[in-house]
Amino acid sequence: MSEFTNVSVLKKANCYFDGGVTSRTIRFPDGSKKTLGIMQPGDYEFTTHDREIMEILEGDLDVLLPDAADWVQVQGGESFEVPAQATFSIRVRALTDYCCSFLS
């Protein structure tokens, strides 16, 4: 899906890691939400509340998922899933455009 219709967008940006990661929250009529964002090259650690699917639209990164021993490369057109209440690490190699879906 390259476009979302009938959504609400929160104007205030979500900024993390001194602006290294930014996003905007999108809310759907059914109550679900996604964020659309950009990650600058760097190393980041995130903690989830809900289960998340991170779709990489453009870019290149490595992700270390919870309980994984090895980093996995993820590029534009690929995605990965993170369980709820988990911590994961990302090494962004190139400017990365992403869409994160929050699943309850």
From TrEMBL:
<dbReference type="GO" id="GO:0005829">
    <property type="term" value="C:cytosol"/>
</dbReference>
<dbReference type="Pfam" id="PF06865">
    <property type="entry name" value="Ppnp"/>
</dbReference>
<protein>
    <recommendedName>
        <fullName>Pyrimidine/purine nucleoside phosphorylase</fullName>
        <ecNumber>2.4.2.1</ecNumber>
        <ecNumber>2.4.2.2</ecNumber>
    </recommendedName>
</protein>
<dbReference type="GO" id="GO:0047975">
    <property type="term" value="F:guanosine phosphorylase activity"/>
</dbReference>
<keyword id="KW-0328">Glycosyltransferase</keyword>
<dbReference type="InterPro" id="IPR009664">
    <property type="entry name" value="Ppnp"/>
</dbReference>
<dbReference type="GO" id="GO:0009032">
    <property type="term" value="F:thymidine phosphorylase activity"/>
</dbReference>
<comment type="function">
    <text>Catalyzes the phosphorolysis of diverse nucleosides, yielding D-ribose 1-phosphate and the respective free bases. Can use uridine, adenosine, guanosine, cytidine, thymidine, inosine and xanthosine as substrates. Also catalyzes the reverse reactions.</text>
</comment>
<dbReference type="GO" id="GO:0004731">
    <property type="term" value="F:purine-nucleoside phosphorylase activity"/>
</dbReference>
<dbReference type="InterPro" id="IPR014710">
    <property type="entry name" value="RmlC-like_jellyroll"/>
</dbReference>
<dbReference type="GO" id="GO:0004850">
    <property type="term" value="F:uridine phosphorylase activity"/>
</dbReference>
<comment type="similarity">
    <text>Belongs to the nucleoside phosphorylase PpnP family.</text>
</comment>
<keyword id="KW-0808">Transferase</keyword>
<dbReference type="InterPro" id="IPR011051">
    <property type="entry name" value="RmlC_Cupin_sf"/>
</dbReference>
